[in-house]
Structures are given as structure tokens and as C-alpha cells.
Amino acid sequence: MAERCTWVIAKEPLYVEYHDKEWGVPVFDDRLLFEMLCLEGAQAGLSWWTILQKRENYRKAFDNFEAEKVIHYTDEKLQLLREDTGIVRNKLKIQSVVTNAKAFLRMQEEYGSFSNYIWSFVDNEPIVNHWGTMKEVPVSNEISDKMSKRLKKDGFKFVGGTICYSYMQAVGMVNDHTLECFCHPSNIKIKK
Predict the structure, then answer these.
(1) Which of 13, 62, 12 is nearest to 36 (CA)?
(2) Which end of the chain is more exposed for a tag (fewer CB within 10 A), N or C?
(3) pTM for the complete prediction?
(4) Helix %, strand %, coil % for the chain, to 5?
(5) Do the record's keywords include Hydrolase (predicted)?
(6) Bridge partners of residue 174, in order along the sequence
(7) Residue pLDDT, tens place only, 112-128
(8) Contact of 52 with 86, CB cutoff 8 Å
(9) What digits encode the pLDDT tens for the residues 90-114?
(10) Residues taking part in catalysis
(11) Residue 125: exposed, middle, or buried by beta-carbon count in 10 A (0-12, 13-18, 19+)?
(12) Which helix (H) or strand (E) holds 128?
């Protein structure tokens, strides 16, 4: 059996697949970047496992995170979302998706894409760390704190430093797979 980061719930295929195929893998697709930003915000105060299990429900509830649709949500739609047991029914977190959609579209317009905007925080290059254990992995850093301040200034909600760092891990802006994990770049064999 392959060694994985110790945070993975090995008996849960959904968690294993997320770890093996998504976490730490660079994402440049704007829609997916927006989805992950919203899901990381939904996670605040909860576990990622809780949100991951509800991910498909979130996609259905929020029109697959198509920001152009989300910005037009009415009070009636928001009320329906607050009654949707398939997602976290926190009023502020639900409203933040609409708020963030508006900010997301502004950043797309200003920077040509949201990807250009968000990846600029790491100079458009993933940061690959070399942690021996998960205990060494920080919950935030100088970059995530800087990102948090800027995102807040640009109108985003639920984007504190810890959420931003978790987001950076989720979309591959930072690779925090530990050294023993088969997903760490040093363990990936390049085919010739």
C-alpha cells in the first residue's frame, strides 16, 4: 500500500481520491478555483471531510459554481439554500458565495482571469515544501496572510489567513505532501 499523508482517512475512498488526485495539484481553471474558494470558506470551523462529503450537493445547490449565475441569486433562492440539508446551512456562509462571485468576476475582468489574480501571490509557481511530518505543516504563513488581506480588500468573505492557506494547498499553489507521501514531487517517477 502506498504511503500517504497522515491526515487521509484511508478507509474512505472519497478522501483517498481527493488526496491522491487533487490536493496539491496546481489548478488554473477559473471555475474550479472559485468552487474551491467557496468550499474552503464553507469549511470554516468544520472539518474538510464534512465539506468533501457535501461537495456534489454544493455543486448542485450553487449551479456548479458558475459565478455569472450565482450573482443573480434572489432572496428566495438564498432562503431555499438555507433550507438545503445537503450543504452547510449557515446564512453568512451562503451569502458569502454570492458576495465572492461578484468579487471573483471583478478580478477576472481586472486581471484577465481569476487564475492570473490568485496565482500572482506565489509568482505563478507552486511552492513545494519538504515536510517530514504533518506536524511541521503550518496552518498559515506570510503569503496566506497577505492573500487574506488582499482578498478582503477586494471584497471577498470567509478568506482569513488559515482559510487562504488551506485554499493554497487545495489548488496546488503550495504542495504540502510530506516527504514519505507518494504524491510528494520527490517521489514521483518521471517516465522517459
Answers:
(1) 62
(2) C
(3) 0.95
(4) 55, 0, 40
(5) yes
(6) 127
(7) 999 999 999 999 999 99
(8) no
(9) 999 999 999 999 999 999 999 999 9
(10) 18, 40, 48
(11) exposed
(12) strand 127-128
